[in-house]
Specification:
The complex is a heterodimer of chains A (271) and B (457). Chain A has 271 residues and is mostly helical. Chain A is built from nine helices and no strands. Chain B is elongated. Classes of the chains: A mainly alpha (271), B alpha/beta (457).
Chain lengths: 271, 457
């Protein structure tokens, strides 16, 4: 077994243990288990960071041409953003979304290691930086928005209907915190997504060998952008708060995941 | 005879309010001093609140005498008959007393289970006992342990996590919606007692400004002065409603004071910022449809009562976990108490062994003649170290065996006799009639016995 395989197994083990322990800790209201899950996630994250660095050190071209790298970076970004929200808003329980998703993305990156990403010859780094980079970060941000949205709807229903208030522990963040996360995700996520999406259109425009044509991939990405733009407008300009932006955030996230899956399938079909 | 912990007390379960009033101790310091002067009592501590009186004493003597002493003093201090006191009090001794005190400290025996005040009252009582010099080794340790058990119970169980009064439940719910209440504005519509209490709790939890609207403006002004709020006229209330994050309503109006349509308009003005309505009035002041609006949460008196009942039942469930913690900690304290019984014996064993080592060292030094100070110190360290090391195993054995049920006294007695720690004068011929042994027990005989035993090995 090589160093990479060992690393990957360790990362999977740590993420898996972290996820399971956090789920059990949440169900059993055991803060020690949750803390332990946090430590395991942090350990997995450090190994994951080392793994990405090693992949790029081995061969930058191979790394950039492999679809697995992007999914791995996406998993890594999800955790970076989760750690930020954990540190800033004490939203520990967002691990319920972030940890399983990071694990799933990491596993997917291994399963789809055969996918070859055809990199453009010119402006490669600019394309990577603007298009892929911003979209990966936007996706990570949206994961948090998705988690906060689900949590908001769940707890909002409980408080509205007065049913099951007992399960709202003293450590459960308030509705205003979830709404604030939604606000931040919309405020930062939308510009990032816009930048990522339109940078690819610009690239089509400036690359001499490329011709821009509308296809399902571009239309689906644009459709996601339109929904996200609507959410951005309603939230930032009309002052939407609470249930509606939370619901729409979930819609945007799901649409983005579908679009991402579609992209993955399209990449697989490439020669 | 060893020192023992006694606890005598009365509480809301054993005594009615008039009995509790009659036997509440006001001059605790004086009472503790008086108890401390009693022959058998070594330490004492008194806790006296509106719901309970707990008298903890550490004493050495007959149980009946000690209880008598406490009852006489207590009845004397309160000017009541001892018989009445006997009728309404409970008595605990030893570990039962420890367990009861831990239960009290954890607020498991309180009228409102899990309430935090009792721990503060116990801390005050302990401070008084320390100041009057009646808390010594055992009471000190007992109270420190009681505080740590209470802390453990609070962190490991949810005994105190949920509100069990209407006003606190309202504050807790507000926190679930807004998080930090810092900088929030509350509006009091009407001036009922419960609404006033809820508003006070909200202010204590960070609510920055309070608007008070009442049909009688003068009443609103008086209330505003006492609660540092701003009075507004009842007619002005709809136009100021958008300023309020939390609205507490308790008017005597037979119809709804606030309609869903009005609140919808207010929400627009507030740019959809959340609002929390607490309707304590009967009949209700706020249209129930208000709760159907987004970002608006409405709780009426029945909803709040339900929350309180749910929280109470949750506390009952948590009490089972808390009692398990109390049991474990009581057992640990019992071990410490037992080790306390052993401490004088260990001290005597070490001191006797060191005396012996020093005597032998003196003999050796006399034989050696002139010895420099450095060598003398080194030899002294050596003999003292050996004298202590030799005792390690016997001490460990005693520590283990004295933890066994009812074994402490027996093993301590054996150890004391074995090492002759009480300097008993034993005749050289003692016990020789048993099993027909005819050997004597002088120091020379013992030496000869050791030599013979070594050879046989």
């Amino acid at each position: 077994m090589g160093l990479f395989e060992l690393f990957q197994l360790l990362i999977i083990g740590l993420y898996l243990c972290g996820t399971v322990l956090f789920l059990v800790g949440t169900a059993a209201e055991n803060s020690r288990l949750k803390r332990l899950a946090g430590f395991l996630a942090v350990a997995g994250f450090f190994l994951h960071s080392a793994d990405i660095v090693l992949v790029f050190m081995q061969s930058q071209n191979v790394a950039l041409n492999s679809g697995a790298t992007y999914l791995s970076i996406l998993a890594w970004s999800t955790l970076v953003i989760y750690f930020f929200f954990w540190w800033r808003f004490r939203l520990e329980f967002m691990a319920l979304t972030a940890l399983p998703l990071a694990l799933l993305l990491f596993l997917t990156s291994l399963a789809f290691s055969g996918i070859r990403v055809v990199m453009p010859q010119r402006l490669t780094m600019l394309f990577l930086g603007l298009h892929i980079g911003t979209l990966v970060v936007a996706m990570g941000v949206l994961v948090m928005g998705f988690g906060a949205g689900i949590a908001f709807l769940h707890y909002n229903k409980k408080i509205k209907t007065k049913a099951g208030l007992k399960t709202l522990g003293k450590d459960t963040p308030s509705l205003s915190i979830f709404d604030r996360v939604n606000h931040l995700v919309v405020a930062f996520g939308f510009p990032l997504y816009t930048f990522g999406l339109f940078s690819s259109f610009v690239w089509y425009w400036i690359a001499p060998s490329k011709q821009f044509t509308w296809d399902v991939m571009k239309i689906s990405s644009l459709a996601v952008w339109v929904i996200f733009a609507f959410l951005f407008h309603q939230r930032m300009l009309l002052g939407w708060k609470g249930r509606k932006p939370a619901t729409l955030m979930i819609v945007v996230f799901v649409a983005m995941v579908v679009s991402l899956l579609h992209h993955t399938i399209t990449f697989r079909q490439m020669p | 005879m060893n020192r023992k912990i006694y606890l005598i007390g009365l509480n809301h379960k054993t005594a009615s309010v008039d009995v509790r009033e009659r036997f509440a101790l006001s001059d605790i310091e004086n009472f503790e001093q008086r108890l401390d002067c009693c022959d058998d009592i070594r330490e004492c501590l008194v806790l006296s609140t509106c719901n309970r009186v707990e008298i903890v004493v550490v004493a050495q003597g007959r149980d009946a005498d000690i209880f008598d002493e406490v009852y006489t003093n207590w009845a004397g201090a309160c000017g009541g008959p001892v018989e009445l006191l006997l009728e309404h009090t409970y008595q605990y001794t030893g570990l039962d007393a420890v367990q009861h005190l831990f239960t009290v400290a954890c607020s498991l025996d309180s009228l409102v289970m899990g309430e935090p005040q009792i721990l503060g009252q116990l801390k005050d009582a302990y401070r008084n006992a320390v100041d009057s010099g009646t808390a010594r080794t055992i009471v000190n340790r007992l109270l420190h342990k009681a505080f740590s058990v209470a802390k453990r119970v609070r962190t490991e169980t949810s005994i105190a996590s949920s509100a069990v009064s209407i006003s606190f439940a309202a504050v807790e719910l507000a926190k679930k919606i807004f998080g930090d209440l810092e900088g929030k504005c509350a509006l009091l519509v009407g001036a009922g007692e419960m609404a006033e209490l809820a508003a006070t709790h909200l202010m204590n939890n960070g609510v920055q400004s309070l608007l008070i609207a009442n049909r009688t403006f003068a009443r609103a002004k008086v209330l505003a002065a006492t609660m540092s709020g701003h009075p507004i006229s009842f007619e002005e209330m709809p136009s100021r409603l958008h300023e309020a994050d939390i609205v507490i309503s308790s008017t005597g109006s037979p119809t709804a004071v606030l309609k869903a349509r009005e609140v919808r308009d207010v929400l627009k003005k507030r740019k959809n910022r959340s609002m929390f309505f607490i309707d304590i009035a009967v009949p209700r002041d706020i249209d129930p449809d208000v709760n159907n609006l987004d970002n608006v949460y409405l709780y009426d008196i029945d909803d709040l009562k339900e929350v309180v009942e749910e929280n109470m039942s949750q506390r009952q469930e948590e009490a089972v976990k808390a009692l398990a913690v109390v049991d474990t900690e009581t057992e640990k304290f019992g071990m410490w108490l037992k080790s306390l019984t052993l401490q004088p014996t260990i001290a005597d064993m070490v001191s006797s062994s060191e005396d012996m080592a020093r005597k032998e060292l003196e003999k050796t030094l006399r034989r050696l003649g002139t010895v420099d100070q450095k060598t003398r110190d080194a030899l002294e360290t050596l003999v003292l170290s050996i004298s202590r090391k030799v005792l390690h195993e016997p001490i460990c054995f005693l520590k283990r065996r004295t933890q066994e049920e009812d074994a402490a006294d027996r093993f301590i007695n054996i150890a004391r006799r074995m090492f002759n720690l009480d300097n008993e004068i034993i005749s050289p011929m003692a016990h020789l009639d048993r099993k027909g042994i005819s050997r004597e027990c002088s120091p020379d005989d013992v030496e000869a016995f050791i030599e013979a035993a070594k050879k046989e090995q």
